[in-house]
Specification:
Layout lengths: L12 E2 L5 E2 L11 E5 L4 H21 L1 E2 L5 E2 L4 E3 L9 E3 L19 E7 L5 E9 L6 E4 L15 E7 L11 E9 H6 L7 E5 L2 E2 L10 E6 L1 H9 L4 H4 L3 E4 L9 E7 L1 E3 L1 H5 L3 E4 L6 E6 L2 E2 L8 E2 L4 E6 L1 E5 L4 E8 L11 E7 L4 E12 L9 E5 L3 H10 L9
Parallel strand pairs: 4-9, 5-27, 19-27
Antiparallel strand pairs: 1-2, 3-12, 6-24, 7-19, 8-9, 8-11, 9-10, 10-13, 11-12, 12-13, 14-18, 15-17, 16-17, 20-23, 20-26, 21-22, 24-25, 25-28, 26-27, 27-28
Length: about 400
């Protein structure tokens, strides 16, 4: 059941292979914070990782862009939009993305794709970015790329983040989502003025650059433990690749059971850095938009494949979208088509040298506003003080390792 929370209490989580994950006491949440678990135990998180790594990452490679609530009819987008609810503020980014100068835009290491199962039960992806947090473990994306707006379930299942994803390659590992945070009004009422989400992730798990082998080794366990890992969840055939049974005579005490022990890749922010955050900013700020757009323009032109990270640049402006009953949005001129672009990061004061800036928007929809059958505008929720309060709560919660 979804509910508004004033205090989030998380249980101590048992880590993979019997190691306990002890967490610091969580802080009080803002009154408008909604929180839902994604993978809240070692076994659950292990199963998520196994699902995406199984069969040479077939589910990662075969995932399709998520296109829920991505295109708004042009005549239903108009100028107007939000007002700040307090003083402007920023949270500084962390990490060192690069050095030297370039005439080209140096793409951020923080950006990647989130993968999950949609309401149709099939693998899909959106764009997302690593965000500065106390424990270097936070991801930001569109709310509808975390919360299930298509069915009565709270969150999308088997949720992971892969920074720098490209055709099955996971250069910094995969990061299983632990806890999701959004505005209460989006979680409960699907208020698209609040279409954003922050997700704490466990430490990464390693895979190889070529998308085939997986770092790790077999760990001998009891039969009872083996059955817990093998039979958890729905996708047993894929997960069975990471469990094995060596019989030594029917039902004898010498039977041996094994599960796969993934290798810890470390914390997300330590590996790729984390973008800062800017809120209550004036309209008209110049931002870079980074994401993985895919799909066609309304005229059928297939401009983007979704396979590589793309960018656009422009000044923000206030907007409303009656299609989505959203009146407090910001827009930016961008040719990103809707499929896959959801969750694209809008970075203010982006440094081409450090590859870091301040997150000031997340694409939640696109539109052709001049009627020429080409997408020309991306839309985002306005980052105000309520968003900052939700971010603060998520950014101070620990996740730990599942390896």
């Amino acid at each position: 059941m979804r509910s508004r929370i004033t205090l989030l209490a998380l249980p101590c989580v048992a880590g993979l292979l019997g190691a306990a994950l002890a967490a610091p006491a969580p802080a009080s949440a803002a009154p408008d914070t909604a929180s839902d678990p994604l993978a809240g135990s070692g076994i659950a998180a292990w199963n998520v990782a196994a699902f995406w790594y199984a069969q040479h990452k077939a589910n990662l490679i075969g995932a399709t862009p998520y296109d829920v609530e991505t295109q708004v009819v042009a005549k239903h987008v108009s100028k107007g939009g939000p007002a700040a609810d307090g003083k402007p503020g920023t949270v500084a980014p962390t990490g060192n993305g690069g050095s030297g100068t370039s005439k080209n835009v140096n793409l951020p290491k923080t950006t990647g794709k989130v993968f999950f199962l949609g309401a149709d039960g099939k693998p899909h992806w959106c764009s997302a970015t690593s965000l500065q947090a106390k424990y270097r473990n936070l991801v930001a994306t569109a709310g509808h790329c975390v919360y299930d707006t298509e069915s009565n379930k709270a969150t999308l299942k088997y949720w992971i983040f892969v920074p720098g994803y490209y055709q099955g390659k996971t250069p910094w590992g995969i990061y299983v989502g632990k806890q999701a945070f959004t505005h209460y009004d989006f979680d409960v009422y699907e208020d698209f003025d609040r279409d954003y989400a922050f997700v704490t992730v466990y430490n990464g798990l390693k895979g190889t650059q070529n998308g085939d082998a997986i770092y790790g080794d077999w760990k001998k366990v009891s039969k009872a433990e083996y059955l817990k890992y093998r039979d958890y969840g729905t996708y047993t055939p894929a997960i069975n690749q990471f469990t094995k049974f060596l019989p030594h005579g029917a039902g004898t005490a010498d039977d041996e059971y094994f599960i796969w022990k993934f290798v810890d890749a470390g914390r997300l922010g330590d590996n790729v850095g984390g973008q800062g955050l800017a809120y209550n900013q004036k309209k008209g700020k110049k931002v870079y938009v980074f994401g993985y757009p895919s799909g066609s323009h309304p005229d059928g032109n297939h401009a983007y494949t979704g396979k590589t990270l793309k960018w656009s640049y422009g000044a923000t402006f206030g907007a409303t979208a009656s299609d989505l009953k959203a009146e407090e949005l910001i827009g930016v001129k961008s040719s990103f088509t809707g499929e896959g672009a959801s969750g694209s990061a809008w970075l203010y004061q982006y440094s081409n040298i450090r590859r870091l800036g301040y997150l000031n928007g997340l694409t939640m929809a696109v539109s052709d506003t001049d009627g020429n059958n080409r997408i020309d505008t991306s839309l985002s929720a306005y980052f105000d003080g309520e968003l900052y309060d939700i971010y603060k709560h998520a950014a101070n919660l620990w996740s730990g390792s599942i390896a």
